[in-house]
């Protein structure tokens, strides 16, 4: 009887997992199909922060198939990013039945906040970091050298930066996870505040143009993200203490 019950649960588990994956792939394909129609416009929008500082006002394509495949790749990457909240929802719906009530109430806001922070990080990179960085790079080209990036190289470079800043803005989520798991205490994060500030300015020095204003524009948001993580960690510890009572 127990064996039959276990087999039934295993089959139900696999069927549910397959359904969630199919829903996710269908949604991804739908978003990709829509974005593919606007792929060239999407690439022009991505290239805009650099085009403003190029003397010739355009990028180049060094391969014959690049004008087709590069926007195609961008459309797929954008579809993945846009479909992320739906993927997270499917993940939540799949694991929710196995969670306690209070865990379900916490998981969904956690996933929602994680997605919002990721999008904020990408927006920060596009609207703040890209203009400052490309203005600097266009201004330091040696005399006689015309900056004419390849469209594929530009996509690879910018997509990595967008992903990097999206992940950087997940700092508060990571801190909350560590505190919730009991791996690190809020007091420990408070003691590490000075190291976090130094680390934020080191990241600013490495990723921003070599001027104090640009580096500060990057370092301060990272430090504020750390401080928000400390604040949320306090709320988590308070909630845990209330549950223990």
UniProtKB/TrEMBL annotation:
The transmembrane residues are 21-39, 74-95, 116-141, 161-180, 192-210
Molecular function via GO: proton motive force dependent protein transmembrane transporter activity
User: Which range is the signal sequence, renumbered to this chain?
Assistant: none
Q: What's a single GO CC term here?
A: TAT protein transport complex
**What is its subcellular localisation?**
Cell membrane; Membrane
Function text: Part of the twin-arginine translocation (Tat) system that transports large folded proteins containing a characteristic twin-arginine motif in their signal peptide across membranes. Together with TatB, TatC is part of a receptor directly interacting with Tat signal peptides.
Q: What is the protein's quaternary organization?
A: The Tat system comprises two distinct complexes: a TatABC complex, containing multiple copies of TatA, TatB and TatC subunits, and a separate TatA complex, containing only TatA subunits. Substrates initially bind to the TatABC complex, which probably triggers association of the separate TatA complex to form the active translocon.
What this protein is called in its record is Sec-independent protein translocase protein TatC
Q: Native species of this protein?
A: Aquicella siphonis
> Could you read off the lineage of the organism from its UniProt record?
Bacteria, Pseudomonadati, Pseudomonadota, Gammaproteobacteria, Legionellales
